[in-house]
Amino acid sequence: MFEGTETIEEFLARCSADVEEAVRKAAAAEILPRFRRLAEHEVDQKSGPHDLVTDADRLAELRLTEDLGALLPGSVVVGEEAVHANPAVYEALQGDAPVWIVDPVDGTRQFVHGDDGFCTLVALAHRGTVIASWTYAAARDQLATAVRGRGAFLDGQRLFAGPPAPGRDLVVATSHPDYTTDEQKGALRALWTDGLAPRPCGSAGLEYLAVASGRLDAVAFSWEAAWDHAAGLLLVEEAGGTHLTLTGEPFRITGGNALPFTAARDAATARRIAGLLNTGS
């Protein structure tokens, strides 16, 4: 159990730069040297041909687990690859200790194919609430950060999502068909309607960044894995956007959400997308 002598907010005021350095160093040591240089033996499948993992994923997560845990004694790490090896690790999201939520390479499919549309996602949560997040697109050298109540930033510049421009179709990134069941496809199919322009998503973290930046109107996703959503949802919130599940409640990183859910650049867009998803469910 976390028994620190300072609050998480005090920790962030003191150590945010150290977290950023840890993220950058993990990418520099384990991810970028393998970008467009992956050997065949460095790529494996997990659940199937569309669920890939590389040595970069595994080694970057191990490094982040060590470095982040050392920065905040008493904290725990929930990483994508650790949960794949031992699903019980995920239960830490329900506990009292601060939790680092880590996706070492979000967009592994893009990474494997030499596309620079991948990123490293780190979020710090406590008792189910995301407090801070780091989204690092290493191949683009872009870093987005957010702290609850203090705004969202991209390379030091404040992000404001703002409402969509009137009179144009809303662009919505949706769960990629390769990763959806027939039932999920049915729910998402409701977005293929007048006034919307849905497309398959790439890296979830970068899609959330696009929403927070006002370059994308919304996302609609059909899965709950906290490492894909925690960092980006805070970015969207702190940029003025919002997120809703099918019951009209915000998405919970601890699970039990009514899916699919949406995150959008403003409340009106979120309500519209959630309403359509409800008709397809």
From TrEMBL:
Q: Which cofactor does it need?
A: Mg(2+)
What keywords would UniProt list here? Hydrolase, Magnesium, Metal-binding
Is the Ribonucleoprotein keyword given for this protein?
A: no
The protein's annotated catalytic reaction(s) are: a myo-inositol phosphate + H2O = myo-inositol + phosphate
E.C. number(s) listed in UniProt: 3.1.3.25
Which parts form a coiled-coil structure per UniProt? none
Q: What is the enzyme's main class? A: hydrolase
Q: Which PROSITE patterns match?
A: IMP_1, IMP_2
MF-aspect GO terms: inositol monophosphate 1-phosphatase activity; metal ion binding
Q: Which residues bind Mg(2+)?
A: 80, 103, 106, 228
One Pfam family named in its UniProt record: Inositol_P
Give one GO biological process term.
phosphatidylinositol phosphate biosynthetic process
Q: What protein does this entry describe?
A: inositol-phosphate phosphatase
